[in-house]
Amino acid sequence: MEEARRCLRRFDVGDKFSRLPLPRATVLLPLMVRGARLHLLLTVRSMQLRRSPGEVCFPGGKSEATDKDDIDTALQEAKEEVGLQPEKVEVICRLMPGIDKMNNLVTPVVGFIEDTFQVTPNPDEVKRGYLTQIHCFTYDDQERKRSFRIWGLTAHFAVFLALVIFGERPTFEVDYDLDNLMSSSENNFINLYASIYERKKSNL
185 lies in a domain? Predict the structure, then answer.
């Protein structure tokens, strides 16, 4: 998995976008090696939550004033939501951020976790956690006998992560120039931010 680490570090944006004038949030993309394959840890949001109950997402949340940086936010939120201790995460990089429907700047932090980790969900926030292979974008809920497609920013980050690690053209269309993935992803983000900025100005 050293090649995966090298690929991810090449796409590390650091704090390049963290000073944009938007509310900040962070998610942790926890990678685990199991059976010689890369898996992602995702969560199913508690049905008690007002916003997006029952949806599949990564551990994460809004930045607090006491958080040192985006990485600190991601680690603290993962600890609160699924019982993942910060020292048990090998943080690799921060990937290109996204902007959610509430206009929060959401930074994905990627880290490796041990294959022995067991999720301890916080019932106020998380119904359950589950592992999926990195290229799988559906979740089968056996209890409710339904399948959920991972969508929105969660899918956006999961797809981009797979593109970075595997460097292969997917079987579906993506909004990137795959020969210039870093520059095209940055251009996409800048265009999105510019459109939101213009919309805010027009509403003043």
Answer: no
